[in-house]
Amino acid sequence: MPLNPDGMPLCVRSAAENDLSALLRLDAEAFPTEPYPFYVLRQLFDLCGDRFLVLDDGHILYGYVLATPPDAGLSLILSLGVTRNLRGNGLGRRLMVAILNRLRSEDVHEVRLTVDPDNGPAVSLYQDLKFVQRGEVQKDYFGPGEHRIHMTCDLTT
C-alpha cells in the first residue's frame, strides 16, 4: 500500500461533502492555471456521487479522480489530479484503476477522456491502462491554445 511522506498508508475512497474545501486546494495545486471554482466542485460532487474518488491518509487528500455517471454504457473521466510533490509515485494509476473498476461494476463498457498532448506522463499512464487515441489532436478544444487528445478505453475486454 503506498504511503504518504510521513509513512501513513493511503486509501482510495468516495469523496465526502466535508472533503470539498480540501478538494478545492488540491485542484488548485494540481491545475494552478485553471482550477475548478468551488461551485463547480460542489455540483460535480452532487452529480457524480460514488464516481468522485479521493486518495487520502485519513487527514490529507493527495489525489482525486472524477467520472460521470454511466449513460448507455459510457462514462467520461472529467479530471484526475495528484498533489505535485507525490507525482510519479503511482497515485494517479491507483486512482484510475479504482475508478475503472467502479465503472466496470456499473456495466460501463466504454470510458472516454481528454488529455493535454504536452502532458506526456498522463498520456503514458492512460496508454498503459489500455486507452487509445481517437482521431487527431483537437486544436483549441478548451479554448485558444488548449489542445486535447481524445482517448477511449474498452472495459469489455
The whole-angstrom Rg is: 15 Å
Q: Give the SSE order as H and E letters.
A: EHHEEEHEHEE
For the termini, the CA-CA separation is 27 Å
- For the record, the CATH class is Alpha Beta
Tally of helical segments: 4
Classify the helix fraction into a percent range: 25-40%
Domains, number = 1
Strand arrangement across the biggest beta sheet: 1-2-3-4-5-7-6
Q: Could you tell me the strand content as a percent range? A: 15-25%
The CATH homologous superfamily: Gcn5-related N-acetyltransferase (GNAT)
Describe this structure in words.
The protein has about 160 residues and is an alpha+beta fold. The protein has one domain (about 10-155): Gcn5-related N-acetyltransferase (GNAT) (Aminopeptidase, 3-Layer(aba) Sandwich). It has helices at about 20-30, 40-50, 90-105, 120-130; strands at about 10-15, 50-55, 60-65, 75-80, 110-115, 130-135, 150-155. It has a seven-stranded mixed sheet with strand order 1-2-3-4-5-7-6. Helix 1 (about 20-30) crosses helix 2. The longest helix has 15 residues, at about 90-105. The protein is globular and about 40 Å long. About 30% of the residues are buried. The model has no long low-confidence stretch (mean pLDDT about 95).
Give the secondary structure arrangement, pairings included:
Layout: E1 11-14, H1 20-30, H2 38-48, E2 52-56, E3 61-67, E4 74-82, H3 91-105, E5 110-115, H4 120-128, E6 132-133, E7 149-154
Parallel strand pairs: 4-5
Antiparallel strand pairs: 1-2, 2-3, 3-4, 5-7, 6-7
Short description:
With 157 residues, the chain is α+β, with helices and mostly antiparallel strands.
